[in-house]
Specification:
The complex is a heterodimer of chains A (103) and B (351). With 103 residues, chain A is of the alpha+beta class. Chain A is built from four helices and three strands; from the N terminus they run αααβββα. The chains are: A alpha+beta (103), B alpha/beta (351).
Chain lengths: 103, 351
């Protein structure tokens, strides 16, 4: 458990956002999918992709190897292990396309 | 086990000889101190006459499926569990706070991880404050020569200038000015002779409205200070040019900040650069939240976000204050701006 694990505190806050919207369930589901889309945008070029299976998150590398992760903070570590390169937010291309995160 | 609010944990750091144990001795002699349990790395020359002092050795383990930043202090974990279990069983006197004194060269992050990662501990404890002692006589020299001393000051929530009785006002003031540049977000206290020291070092309680508002004001003031060039000058140890400099700076996000891309970016930033990102605090205007969101991160660890009832002043712009070592402000600003713009093309980020 690392990086955002304190923020996660079991997963809910980090992946599902901090909204105080009345339609909490739908909103959280949408936020979760949006997070996944954003993470996959970050992971472009590494050969790694994040998908969800129920409540679980699956990180799949370019050779087909997978890691099950229960918390979003684990995704980055799994991507480091499986990917062709390590993604660095300070080296992201400014010209990258906008992410399709319309939930 | 305890059934009430989480017990606040104060992590006491400070360079070798900076007066950690002497400060602890003073604290334990007070009424509040008699309700404290203490875990220390090693018993030094100064003995602590206190019922609840335990020694923990310095071994560190990596959690199963863990990485370097998941290191936890196994003996510390065992010591904390024993304390909590012991109080629940009536085997140790009741305590309402825990102080962990680290060694002088310690990186506090494994200690923080220990408290926040362990499922049992994180239900019973809360990280209240990282406190660092700085010696009024030798503090500036230690900061100049020793990278660890500067990192401890930069990482702290609160700073305590020690040995003020052996120093003069000019020296103390000079050190205070230096510390404010290294860590503009940490309130600075003096010891000895400070009757309110416990209150000052226990830190903010997220469940307490007054504490939350005080913390928000700290971030707001720090961001304001950092607007001027003098406050954003990198602090390089003068006699250790091989070391990367520590710098603090503030970023402002003109539009309400989009939580999802922001948190994805933040989590990756601290995953990849947690060693260099010493502190981040922020007040964020997040759509859907009734008030600002207070953000607080120390290296790889991000505290749970806290909802505030209102802003500390008339400025309702999202502000983030960073203390970093060896990272460029421009790179962080550009990276955040680029990622937020993908989600919202109107986003503007200013220094």
């Amino acid at each position: 458990m690392c990086s955002a694990c304190g923020l996660l505190r079991g997963g809910a806050e980090w992946i599902e956002g901090v909204t105080e919207d009345e339609n909490v369930h739908d909103r959280r589901l949408a936020e979760r999918r949006r997070h996944i889309a954003l993470i996959n945008m970050m992971l472009e070029g590494t050969g790694v992709k994040l998908t969800e299976h129920g409540r679980q998150l699956i990180v799949r590398g370019p050779t087909g190897s997978t890691r099950l992760v229960t918390e979003l903070a684990h995704v980055w570590r799994a991507a480091d292990e499986l990917g062709r390169r390590k993604v660095d937010p300070l080296n992201l291309s400014a010209s990258a396309p906008q992410v399709g995160v319309g939930a | 086990m305890t059934g009430g609010s989480p017990i606040p944990v104060i992590v006491l750091t400070g360079f070798l000889g900076s007066g950690k144990t002497t400060l602890l001795q003073h604290l334990l002699e007070t009424d509040d101190g008699r309700r404290a349990a203490v875990l220390i790395n090693e018993f030094g020359e100064i003995s602590l006459d206190h019922l609840l002092v335990k020694s923990v050795s310095g071994s560190t383990v990596v959690l199963q499926n863990g990485c370097v930043c998941c290191s936890v202090r196994s003996e510390l974990r065992a010591g904390l569990r024993e304390l909590i279990d012991g109080m629940a069983k009536g085997e140790v006197p009741p305590f309402d706070r825990i102080v962990i004194e680290t060694t002088g060269l310690a990186d506090p992050v494994p200690v923080v991880q220990t408290i926040t990662v362990d499922p049992m501990l994180r239900n019973h404890l809360r990280l209240a404050s990282l406190v660092s002692t700085v010696d009024a006589l030798n503090g500036i020299e230690q900061i100049d020569k020793q990278c660890e001393a500067m990192r401890q000051a930069a990482t702290a929530d609160r700073l305590v200038i020690t040995k003020t009785d052996l120093s003069n006002e000019w020296q103390i003031d000079k050190l205070q000015q230096r510390l404010m540049k290294i860590n503009p977000m940490a309130p600075i206290s003096r010891s000895p002779g400070n009757a309110h020291l416990w209150n000052q070092i226990v830190g903010s309680d997220p469940s307490d409205l007054q504490s939350r508002n005080a913390e928000a004001s700290v971030v707001s003031r720090a961001a304001e200070k950092l607007q001027s060039e003098a406050w954003s000058t990198p602090q390089t140890p003068a006699k250790a040019h091989h070391l990367h400099s520590i710098a603090s700076f503030a970023l402002r996000v003109s539009k309400p900040i989009d939580w999802s891309p922001f948190v994805v970016w933040l989590s990756l930033l601290v995953h990849r650069h947690g060693r260099e990102v010493l502190r981040i605090k922020g007040l964020l205007d997040v759509p859907g939240a009734k008030g600002p969101i207070s953000l607080n991160a120390v290296q790889h660890f991000i505290h749970p976000p806290v909802h505030l009832d209102g802003w500390p002043d008339d400025d309702h712009t999202s502000r983030l204050v960073f203390i970093v070592q060896g990272l460029e402000e421009a790179a962080i600003r550009s990276s955040l701006a680029n990622f937020l713009r993908r989600a919202n093309p109107d986003t503007q980020i200013a220094a």
